[in-house]
């Protein structure tokens, strides 16, 4: 659904509003901003909600609202009532409800999986996620080319299946009584204080924030599909699916043989590789080469996500996981949405190619800087909780 919203806004801006490539690219940046504002405002609340209430019901309720968003997009598109204000409003609502899904779902795994199996569970979960990320954009590109409302109708059905799946999870332990007694504002502040005081967690979360903020090429894929590589919505679907293909392959390998040594160094190297593949994609003018580079980009990103997610889960107490997951999700989403805004601005000034090349170089630069600012990341030899490592060293 996110893929089609971006392409539709760019296409409407070009075809219906007569905007230039630069002006239409800027609309993609505004789309990221429209999704970031509710994300910034609601993420702290979402973390507290995930720690105070049944996480399954929180996620299912948010998906139910997202179902209504998909339904609205389907009706608007089918009846030709689409316009930039309507599309922006529905995209912002979509971003708002998705805020509540991440913290709730991210905090469920440690409640149903033994700590020793969490790295494998994260890898298996990533396989499912990436499989959807492959099948969704690839098939929705063709559905959109066939009939513009079809992707949204498909999304409504898939969201119903997602709601049923989440509610089918076995009963989990109730939230601690202290979580319900504590003042919500105090809980929000406590979550940020915990992350800020734990330099290791702060380094993991902020690395992704700044690297993807600069290195994200996803927002400008509609520009590459329509006006640079000339492959249309079908090609856009394949390009959006390509990173997920690389990520799914890596996730499959990691589920069978998880990383165990020098995980901090490998996380930093994978982020640097992500930036290098982004830079190379910006320079490519061959569709198949671009697909290959995007696949490698996704593979590098999967290694980073696997290590970072495992480290964050295993270094966070259960009563804080909802809030820490929310903060981590805020960083990830902020990097995506603000990255889209940055990409839109940069594309308006430098062109789409210049923006992507600049972003890839920026991600490499961030990796080097973070290795120096947070030596704790380099010292992470395994997934063992880092506070234990510090105690044993002292």
General description of the model:
The chain has 394 residues and is mainly alpha-helical. Helices cover 83% and strands 0% of the residues. The radius of gyration is 20 Å and the shape is globular.
CATH topology: Growth Hormone, Chain: A
Kindly name the structural category. mainly alpha
CATH architecture: Up-down Bundle
Through-space gap between termini: 50 Å
Q: Mean pLDDT across all residues, rounded?
A: 80
Write the layout of secondary structure elements.
Elements (H helix, E strand, L loop, with lengths): L1 H14 L5 H32 L2 H24 L5 H23 L2 H4 L5 H29 L3 H18 L9 H5 L2 H14 L1 H17 L5 H8 L3 H25 L6 H21 L3 H28 L6 H53 L1 H5 L6 H8 L1
Helix pairs in contact: 1-2, 1-4, 2-4, 2-9, 2-15, 3-4, 3-7, 4-15, 6-12, 6-14, 10-13, 10-14, 10-15, 11-12, 12-14, 13-14, 13-15
């Amino acid at each position: 659904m996110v893929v089609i919203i971006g392409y539709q806004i760019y296409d409407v801006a070009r075809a219906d509003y007569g905007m230039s490539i630069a002006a239409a690219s800027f609309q993609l940046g505004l789309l990221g901003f429209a999704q970031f504002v509710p994300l910034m405002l609601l993420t702290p609340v979402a973390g507290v909600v995930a720690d105070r209430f049944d996480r399954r019901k929180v996620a299912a309720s948010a998906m139910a609202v997202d179902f209504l968003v998909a339904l609205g997009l389907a009706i608007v598109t089918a009846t030709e009532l689409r316009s930039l204000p309507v599309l922006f409003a529905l995209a912002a609502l979509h971003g708002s409800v998705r805020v509540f899904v991440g913290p709730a779902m991210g905090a469920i795994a440690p409640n149903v999986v033994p700590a020793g199996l969490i790295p494998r569970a994260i890898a298996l979960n990533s396989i499912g996620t990436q499989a959807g990320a492959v099948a969704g954009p690839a098939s929705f590109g063709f559905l959109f080319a066939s009939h513009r409302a079809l992707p949204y109708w498909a999304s409504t059905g898939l969201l119903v299946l997602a709601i049923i799946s989440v509610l089918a999870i076995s009963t989990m332990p109730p939230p601690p009584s202290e979580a319900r007694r504590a003042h919500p504002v105090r809980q929000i502040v406590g979550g940020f204080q915990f992350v800020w005081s734990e330099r290791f967690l702060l380094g993991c979360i902020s690395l992704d924030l700044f690297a993807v903020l600069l290195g994200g090429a996803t927002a400008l894929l509609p520009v590459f599909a329509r006006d640079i590589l000339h492959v249309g919505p079908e090609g856009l679907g394949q390009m959006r699916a390509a990173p997920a293909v690389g990520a799914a392959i890596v996730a499959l390998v990691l589920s069978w043989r998880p990383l165990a040594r020098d995980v901090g160094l490998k996380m930093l190297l994978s982020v640097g590789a992500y930036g290098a593949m982004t830079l190379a994609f910006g320079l490519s003018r061959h569709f198949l080469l671009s697909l290959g580079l995007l696949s490698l980009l996704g593979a590098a990103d999967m290694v980073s996500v696997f290590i970072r997610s495992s480290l964050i889960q295993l270094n966070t107490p259960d009563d804080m996981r909802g809030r820490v997951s929310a903060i981590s999700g805020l960083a990830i989403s902020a990097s995506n949405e603000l990255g889209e805004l940055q990409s839109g601005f940069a594309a308006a000034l430098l062109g789409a190619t210049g923006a992507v090349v600049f972003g890839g170089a920026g991600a490499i630069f961030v990796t080097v800087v973070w290795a120096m600012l947070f030596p704790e990341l380099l010292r992470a030899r395994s997934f063992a909780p880092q506070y234990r490592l510090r105690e044993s060293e002292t």
